[in-house]
Amino acid sequence: MFLEDQALPKILLVDDQPTVIHQLNNIVKDFGKTYFATNGRSALEMVHQHKPDLVLLDIEMPDFNGYDVCRAIKAIDEFANISIIFITSRVDPASEVIALELGGIDFISKPIVPEVVRARIKNHLSLARQRQELQRVSGELGFLVSSLPVFVAYWDAQLNNLFCNDSKGSWFGIEALQMRNMALRSVVGGQIYHQIIQSLDQSVLQDIPSFDINIVAADGRSVVGQVALAGWNFDPGASGYLMVITDISERKQAEQCLEEEKERIRTTLNSIGDAVIATDTQGRITLLNPVAEELTGWSAARAIGKPIEAIMQLTDGEAGPPVQNPIRLALEEERPVGMALNTFLSNRLTKSIGDDVTAAPIVDQDGNITGTIIVFHNVSEARAMATKMTHLAHHDPLTNLPNRTLLYDRIQQALNSCHREGSVVALFLLDIDHFKAINDVHGHVVGDNLIKQVALALAEKLRDGDTLCRQGGDEFIMLFPRIESTTCVTQVAERLLDVFDRTWTVDENAFRLTASIGISLVPDDAEDVESLYRHADAAMYSAKSAGRKQFLFYSADIESKLQLHRMLEANLVDALANKAFEVFYQPKINVLDGKIVGTEALVRWRQPDGSLTNPASFIPLAEETGLIIPLGKLVLAQAFKQASVWQQQGFDLRVAVNISVVQFEDDNFLAMLDEIVRETGVTASLIEMEITESLLVKDVERVNSIFAALNTRGFRIALDDFGTGYSNLSYIKNFPFDVLKIDQSFVRNMLGSQVDQNIIQAIIQLAQGMNLRLIAEGVETIEHVQALQAMGCEVMQGFYYSPPLPLADFNRLLTRRISLPE
C-alpha cells in the first residue's frame, strides 16, 4: 500500500469484456484510483485525460488492438514512462516478445489468477514509485548543481572532463555537453592549467590549497575565481579530481574598496579641521592627525603608545584643576561622552577646546570594544564670535540699542517683578511722524543718520534700569519697569515729546520732527507681554489718527476701534467671497399714489454670528483709513447691478447711492464708475449720486468738473442733508443738482419746533422754484406725512413706510402698493 501522504496511483483497465474489467477492478481497486475503457480508442482518450501510472491492457480488441494502443501511447513523450501490462489469452512466446518490444513491462495470461495479478501489480507499482523517486532526486540534484553560482567539474586521473555543471558555457565559453572528455588544458587555457598543475604537484590529494585565477568570461567580463580542488577515488579502479571555482570578483572589489576607503579615511583625518586622537582599550595613543599634533604639541611618532593623559592635559577653566579625560569615561561606561564646556587643553599654547567634543568607544562587529576615538577643536575664536553674534542677535545693528527679542525678555522680567512687588510697568511705543517722506526725498542714508541721532537723544531721557529699543524703521519702544504713578508716566511722555522740539541736521539738511506715543500700563491695561505691546500699539495708532504730535494712554475704546479696523480690512480683502457686506434698500414713496418711485442703497456689515454692525460705527473708520474706496466700489457694483435687474423686470426705480468725500476725491472715481457701468449694463439715469454739503467747500473747480462728467454720463446728483452744513443759495445755483433731500434732523423735530417747520417750508419752496425734485427723509409717523404733504413734499422716505430691507424683502415690497394715510 502507498503511504497516505503520497498521491494514489492511477490505474487504467482496458478490456472489451466488462466482466474482465469488473474482475480486474476488484483485484486492484485498493492499490489506487481506477479508470475503465472497453476499446482501444476510448483507452487513448482516457490516457490523455487522466495520465495513468499503470495500464492493464487487453491485446485482442476488435477495433484497435492492445499492440496499437501501446504503440500510440509510447509514441508520445509525455506518456512514454507509463507502465503497461498486457493481458491476453495467448500463451505463445511470440506475443510476449512483441509486447516487450513495444514497451510493455509484463504479461498476464487469462484466465486471470487474482493472487498473481495482485503480486505483479504491487511489484510494478513499487518499482514505478522507486523509479519516480530516483528521477525526482536525480532531477533535484541536477537542478541544484546546475543552479549553483559556481563552476563544478569532475576530471579523471588524466585530467579529462567527466562532468560539468556549466550547461551554458558561461565560464570558459564551452557548454557542459561539449566539454565532456575534453582535456583540462583545452578547457581552461595554458596559464590556468599551469597554476592547477603547480598546486597539485605541491600538495597531497587530501590537502590541496585553494588559489585565485583571472578569467575572461564568455560575456567578456573579467572574473576573479577562487579554485578549490579535491581528489576522489570512490571506485577501486577510478580516481580523479573535483574542481570548484567560485566567483569572488565582488569580494575582491569590496576588499579593494575597503583599502581605498581606509586611504580616504586617512586622508580625511589628515585634512579635516578637527583634531582626532585614537587609543587602544588601555587609553594608549594609536593615532594623532595633524590638527591634534598642532593642538597638543606632540608629533604622532612621539605620542604613539603613550597614555592619553600625557598628550591631552585638560583643566577646568584656563588655570583650573585637572579634569578626567573623557576617553577614560567612554571606556569605563562603554558609551559616547561629551566634554565640559569650560574645558581647556594645556600645552605650550593654552587653548579652549570645550565645545563640540566627543569621546566614543570603537566597537567591532561582535560588539567588542577595540579602542576609543576623541574629536575636538579649538573653540577660542568660535566663543568670541558667539559672544559677538549673541550681541548682534539682541541689538539693533544701526543704533546698537536692544532689539525686540531682548526687549521681550526684559518685559517678562519686569512683569515678574511687578507681580511680586505690586509695582507698575509702563510700555511706550514711539513713532516718528511722517518719517517715510524723509527717506523718500532725502534717501535712507540721511534717514539712518537721523534715527541714530534720535536714539541718542531718547536714551539721555531714560533712567538706569529703563530699556530703549528700536524694532525697525522709525519706531522705538521704551520699557519703564518701576513707575510710581500715572503722573510720572505723563511727565516722562512729555519729556520724550520735548526731545523732538529742536532742529535736526544731517549734512546741509535741517529737519523738524514730531512723534506720536502710545502708552500701556501693567496691571491696569495688560497682564502679559503680548497684550501689553498690542495695547501700546493701539494707543499709538490712535495718537496718530487724532492728529499726531501727542501721546495717548490705552483704553478699551481704542482697542475696540483698532479691532474694528482690522476686521473691516480683513473682510474687505475678500468681501465678495465671504459676503460679509450686504446692500439693503429703503424705498422712496410717492404719497399721492403710494407707489415706490426709488430706493436708497445702504451698506450693512454682517458678522459671523448673523448680527449686523451699525454703519455709524464703521463708515467713519472706513473713510478715515481709506477703506471706504474698496467698500464704496462694492456697494456701487451691487446697486448698479440691481438697478439694471429691476429695469429688465419692468420697474422704473431710481437707485440712490451715498458717495463719500474720500471716494469723490479719489483720482480713479470716474474710471471706476465707467468700469461698473460696463460690467453691469445699467442705465446711468437710474442712478442718483448722493453727496453731502461738506463736499461743496472743497476745490470748487474740481467739484464742478466732476459734476459735469457725471451729468455727461447721465447720472443724477442729489444734495443730501441739505440745510445742516455750509449750504447757501450760491452753492445751489452754481452746482447742477437734480434732487434736494430734507435732512431727517429737521423732519424729526418739525412737529414740536416752528423753526424746523419754517426751514422745511423754505427748502420746499426753494426746490420748487429751482425745479428740483424733493425728498424728505426720516419720516416716522403719520403726522410727519400729513405735515410734509401739506407743505408740498410728495416723495418721502422713512421708517413709517419701511426700514432698509434686504434685497429679497424689498423685492416682495415692490409687488404691492404702499398703504397711504386717510
From TrEMBL:
Molecular-function GO terms, alphabetical: catalytic activity
InterPro entries with a match to the protein in the record: Biofilm_reg_signaling, CheY-like_superfamily, EAL_dom, EAL_sf, GGDEF_dom, Nucleotide_cyclase, PAS, PAS-assoc_C
Domain annotation Response regulatory: ranges: 10-125
Residue stretches making up the PAC domain: 209-260
Keyword Phosphoprotein: yes
Domain PAS: 261-334
Keywords noted in UniProt: Phosphoprotein
Highest taxon, organism lineage: Bacteria
Necessary cofactors: Mg(2+)
One Pfam family matching this protein: PAS_4
Residue span, GGDEF domain: 423-556
Residues annotated with 4-aspartylphosphate modification: 58
Domain EAL: 565-818
Annotated protein name in UniProt: EAL domain-containing protein
Entries under Gene3D superfamilies matching the protein: 3.30.70.270, 3.40.50.2300, EAL domain, PAS domain
One BP annotation, GO: phosphorelay signal transduction system
